[in-house]
Amino acid sequence: MSVLNQASPSTALPDAALVLRPSACPGLLRIVAARDGGICRIKLPGGELSAAQAAVIADVSERYGAGVVELTNRANLQVRGVRSGHEAALIAALVEAGLGPIPTGGAADAVSLLLTSSQQTPGSISASAADDVRNVMVSPTAGRDAFALFDTRPLCVELLTLLQSEARFAALSPKFALLLDGGERLVRLDHPHDVWLAATQAEDGVRFVFGLAGCPSAAANSDAFQHIAHSAVDHSRPNYAGALAAMLPSQVTDLVCALLHTFLDLAAPDDTRMRHLLAAHSIDAVLQHAQTYVDFPLSRGTSLANWQRPTPADATLRLGAHAQRVVGMLHVGGQPPLGRLDAATLRGLATLSQQQGNGTLHTTPWQSVLLPDIAADAAPTVLAEMNALGLACDPAQPMARLIACAGSTGCAKSLSDTKADALLLADRLPDGVDVHLSGCPRSCAAAHCAPYTLLAAAPGIYDLYRRDGQPGFGSCVAHQLTIEQAADMLDPLAHPARSPSDA
Ligand code: SF4
Fold first, then answer.
1. How far is the CA of 407 from the centre of ligand 1 (A)?
2. Domains of the chain, earliest start first
3. pLDDT digits (tens, 9 = 90+) for 182-221
């Protein structure tokens, strides 16, 4: 943050950058109404929360809401069913538990935050805006993966501080997001980010490469490019693939600061995401502009055009018990059914992390939970207790392969009760098949294109899509299916080589 170039154009902000964009996204301080009550989204730095914080969330979800806590595909949590008139008490309790956008020291700070949440004084960022912009994703196993090249946790803290401390960044969309990849095996590479940074090994040490409006590419993972190709904007490979430049880890925060200022300098009023900016400006133009903010070279490295992260991503590591970098320590993970936890289950996980782990829980962008630092001899107990709490800890279990949006019980836009329909499908889901059920085309449950998507057409009736490189959900392979008919179609689609007798 210190090396903003003195020649920087940051002192002359264009009007577009000064306009705070209204948002319909839930936040901690902006509870958004839904069919089942208010939604309060709690952003977790690095996807981590303490057992004590988890217990508070469980308590307030019961006291002020429906007792339902949802995991999001950005590794955050949201309390659903917040009752009218209880919003302020809920927010105050969460802020007092240290879950607010800025460090707070107790009830007095919580009240102060509430009173000023939407106010922005010159040179400062409002609490509400600070909450909106704190979007940095890291691996749930950051700092613990033996394959990782870099422990991204301190850098994540630096970036979150940067985002929340620059008044100008209040103009960023609440969806504007960064990915910080330390080279871990457990990393989500099919979820595009506005800016991504990935550790890479150079001859003389670790560097970070970066790209815009996408994800790091890995040899064994083509999803990132598939998704980019699916986006509404025409993302041509020369602009979006590979990495743009490499820098020292110590330069990353200044780079991000420069890129955010560049975005705000160049973005048209309706441009909320980096992909919108790149539809109007070349990568080279963006880099040239960003160069004015930093005193280290930012020229595009042509040798990085085909850069790929050396370590393949493995999403199955979010489930079950797996070794950490320190010998004898494991992380143990499980998938709550359809990404939802009731208060009792969340309390149970908090207790488990206190008794068997390090007293923290980690959420993942697969809407699952991971407990780190479990001694190897305690892992079977933790797995058994997670199973008893209703979490799927084996990737083969149907509930580990199904995601669904809120559906008609929680969202007025939904044409069907996707959650209930997903539970019906679970009983008949063919092995090896991953399915996303969506109540409408907005695809809230999945920022990626799932292998198969059931898009609601009417209550209990869906159109089936298969991912094949086409935009959106892929190609529609069948219309107007019941859940039973969809289950019958999925098996031969996913396993065409099987004979009918095998099916
Ligand atoms: S995908 Fe559509 S129906 Fe489902 S929660 Fe989002 S807006 Fe509602």
1. 6
2. 21-119+335-395 (3.90.480.20), 120-313 (3.30.413.10), 401-494 (3.30.413.10)
3. 999 999 998 899 999 999 999 999 999 999 999 998 765 4
